[in-house]
Design a protein that fits this description.
332 residues; alpha/beta; Rossmann fold; 3-stranded antiparallel beta sheet; 10 helices; L-lactate_DH; L-lactate dehydrogenase; EC 1.1.1.27; NAD(P)-bd_dom_sf
Length: 332
């Protein structure tokens, strides 16, 4: 890590619902000197900066907010990518992913060269797949590229279990692991309330039906919110701000984050120690046989999507090369 900087900055790429909510959270709970917003929609960008700037005048925040370029973002301490295409009616998941990968590629091209100490945080979905490709496109060390993954799903798990058990959510120790999506799973065997195993704390109430109800709640929460209001922003904005804090303050906090798993060949969420250099180390977690199978199935599904996306990208590249080869040479 380079010498200590007197000023710290967080760049947010994409100032839609999630990006602007994250920026507002960073203003209300300042952890950096400067928040840089970047978005190709210039009118929206300027309006968000002016609106958010008004929130800095109340006198008890030192954080400044400004519009910036991708080049500016590439020199920030933390870069948070919230930008991504929305799915069109009838569009396949792979096709949507291909569009988002093209956006991701253009972002890294515009940011280059990226400061070698920058930490990259992916929020845009599908977050596990985009994190996998971002580690290749960015040129940054594996430990400095991570996704929010199942951090919000795990927070939802703590919330609902806290309600059921009649305790504060922060007293629940439990993780949703794997994909931030349909194949995610709860590591029930390691869940505790304080130091008390969940099986002992809940007793006969911890039935298979209870577990399925909780799993369905955590898995379907985002879809239910989106169906009613069109997006989720506050929960993920708060989670992303917390992750930025753990990084900049080198807090060495353990959280479930999406990062590269060499033995599984993909990025998915597992517990990790988070600090100023990104992923400091993976934290081993004991899984039972069912949970191990869930993890393997999750990784298999993600690898299948990655392979499909790589094939489509290869086909696009070959088509582009064919067009360029057929283009007549410009006469001098």
């Amino acid at each position: 890590m380079s010498e200590h900087k007197l000023k710290t900055s967080i760049a947010i790429l994409g100032c839609g619902d999630v990006g602007s909510t994250l920026a507002y959270t960073l203003i209300l709970n300042p952890i950096c000197s400067e928040v840089i917003l970047v978005d190709p929609k210039k009118e929206l960008l300027e309006a968000q900066v002016r609106d958010l700037g008004d929130a800095t005048y109340r006198g008890n925040t030192g954080a400044k907010i400004r519009a910036g370029t991708h080049k500016d973002a590439g020199q920030a301490d933390v870069v948070v990518i919230t930008a991504g295409a929305k799915q069109k009616p009838g569009e396949s998941r792979i096709s949507l992913l291909s569009r988002n990968l093209r956006i991701l590629s253009s972002i890294f091209s515009a940011m280059a060269p990226i400061d070698p100490d920058t930490i990259l945080l992916l929020v845009a979905n599908p977050v596990d797949i985009l994190t996998y490709f971002a580690r290749k496109m960015s040129g940054l060390p594996e430990s400095q590229v991570l996704g929010t993954g199942t951090s919000l799903d795990s927070a939802r798990l703590r919330g609902i279990l806290g309600q059921k058990a009649g305790v504060a959510p922060h007293s629940i120790m439990g993780y949703v692991l794997g994909e931030h999506g349909d194949s995610q799973f709860i590591a029930w065997s390691s869940c505790t309330i304080g130091t008390t195993p969940l099986s002992l704390a809940l007793g006969k109430d911890l039935t298979n039906e209870f577990k399925e109800e909780i799993a369905e709640h955590t898995r379907g929460a985002a879809a239910a919110i989106i169906a009613s209001k069109g997006c989720t922003a506050y929960g993920i904005g708060n989670i992303a701000a917390s992750i930025c804090k753990y990084i900049l303050f080198d807090q060495r906090t353990v959280r479930p984050l999406s990062f590269y798993q060499p033995e599984l060949g993909c990025c998915l969420s597992m517990p990790a120690v988070l600090g100023r250099k990104g992923i400091i180390k993976a934290m081993p977690i004991q899984l039972n046989d069912v949970e191990k199978r869930d993890l393997e199935n999750c990784a298999r599904n993600l690898r299948s999507i990655i392979e499909g996306a790589e094939e489509e990208l290869d086909a696009e590249q070959k088509l582009k090369e064919a067009f360029e080869a057929e283009r007549p040479a410009v006469q001098s």
